[in-house]
Specification:
By secondary structure, the protein is mostly beta strands. The protein contains 1 helix and 11 strands, in the order αβββββββββββ. The chain is 12% helix and 40% strand. The longest helix is centred in the first third of the chain and has 19 residues.
């Protein structure tokens, strides 16, 4: 029981920090969102990173990045290679958000993909769906528009929908 209470407190603290961190700022030319955890899942975790080496044929499409924040799996200033990147993005404005859009939500050190389920403009809040993989349990999260990023490149769609 004690472990359950500690876990619940940790989750509440993390949620509170994400809600308070209105950190989403316009993208700088050298910045991308790079995947650092669970790359094979829709719920993979991304962090803000600086491009050291751009993905190319010579690097087999991998980007060398330098992490700009600490997370449970990254350390500020450390470098890594990844193919899973979001190269262009911008802070969301409530009027841009449409049901079914794939967006990023969270904070600079931990973002994940979500699908807009409902926009509540009067609250500045968006209800998002997220899941680990198509066919698995769908969860919902409420996020401030200040903690949402619009993905410009590469284009992403809901993997549950057939093209």
């Amino acid at each position: 029981m004690k472990n359950v209470i500690i876990l619940a407190m940790a989750i509440a603290i993390e949620a509170s920090i994400c809600a308070q961190e209105a950190m989403i700022k316009p993208q700088k030319a050298e910045e991308i969102l790079a995947c650092y955890f669970d790359v094979h899942l829709f719920s993979a975790q991304y962090g803000l990173a600086k491009v050291v080496t751009t993905g190319s044929d010579a690097t087999k499409g991998e980007y060398e990045v330098e992490w700009l924040y600490n997370s449970h799996a990254t350390e500020k200033g450390k470098r890594a290679w990844t193919k899973h990147v979001i190269t262009k993005f911008h802070p969301a404005e409530i009027v841009e958000l449409k049901t079914g859009m794939v967006v990023m939500f969270g904070s600079a050190n931990k973002m994940t993909r979500g699908i807009v389920k409902e926009v509540l403009p009067h609250k500045g809040v968006v209800i998002l769906e997220w899941f680990h993989a198509p066919g698995e349990a769908v969860h919902t999260a409420e996020a401030s528009v200040n903690n949402i990023i619009i993905i410009d490149e590469p284009k992403m769609t809901d993997p549950r929908k057939k093209s």
